[in-house]
Amino acid sequence: MTLNRCAWCGDDPLYISYHDHEWGVPVHDETKHFEFLLLESAQAGLSWITILRKRENYRLAFDGFDPEKIARYDDAKIADLLQNPGIIRNKRKIASAINNAQKFLDVRHEFGSFDQFIWQYVDGRPIVNHFSELSDIPVTTALSDTISRDLKNRGFNFVGSTIIYAHLQAIGIVNDHLITCFRHAELS
Hints:
The chain is globular. The model has no long low-confidence stretch (mean pLDDT 96). Helix content is 55%, strand content 2%. It is mainly α. It has a two-stranded parallel ribbon. The longest helix has 21 residues, at 91-111. It has helices spanning 13-21, 30-43, 48-61, 67-70, 75-82, 91-111, 114-119, 142-153, 161-170, 182-187; strands at residues 127-128, 174-175. The protein has one domain: Hypothetical protein, domain 2 (Endonuclease III, domain 1), CATH 1.10.340.30.
């Protein structure tokens, strides 16, 4: 039996696995929150499949996405990362990962967890959209605009509204699986 999926995942096994098991699943784990934030920021200007293919390299290079460790990276660690062919070797994106780890910890300190902070915007309940075509799915919304602005005001970077909307989809705050996709009903 063939499952109906969102067309964006195509036939790449890595993309299909991500679509079927992660995309749109509500996240409440701090490390996973930071992982998606770091990866979405690294993705800026690139395709998501490029980042998925480098995800395990990122996991190794960035200490399992541990924000406490990443927040303490020094110039020597940055130099090592810039030599790592397994990740996107962009100095601004690497610096952003370190900065955002520090800001992530600040948010955790203020709110008790990043999870509390991010889910407050939807009162803890995912937004379930009912799109029938990929072209119906927005790249930004008023919600992503608001969260992006808040994160920028808190000192985060590489967190524009488009990146944040993709982040909200990834962590399940927004369910943008098409109504014809088997995951839409499962996550609703």
